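Researcher: Re-running this chain for the archive, since the previous output was lost when a drive failed. Same request as before.
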Amino acid sequence: MLKNIDPALNADVLHALRSMGHGDTVVVSDTNFPSDSIARQTMLGKLLRIDNVSAARAINAILSVMPLDTPLQPSAGRMEIMGAPDEIPPVQQEVQAVIDGAEGKPAPMYGIERFAFYEEAKRAYCVITTGENRFYGCFLFTKGVIPPEAV
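Model: Regenerated structure tokens:
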């Protein structure tokens, strides 16, 4: 255990998040996502796990240490529901609340069509799979910066 570090963040996940730079992306996926095959195509090249927790719980842990990118570009994406791209299922509503809490203000997610999401995921720095078993619990986050005065 470490002080002030969420216990859901294991050493491999912390190392990856710390290794990412500004503008790198991380995928947080549900249990149905082709996580291993996609992860093998990312910069890291292997799958990371935060097992036995929901997507919202895992993302809360991740956003406790990783800043999102500035409002100048979208920094939080969600996989759209096929045939209903504007529908926001409960799993995505929960994650939206986590993002808003981490940012201290509303920070709406943008939608990514399912197959486009797979292609974006292949270009990510890494993939972290969770224990989320609800459909469309897949998200893409862009890492931001921590300004010098905040350090």
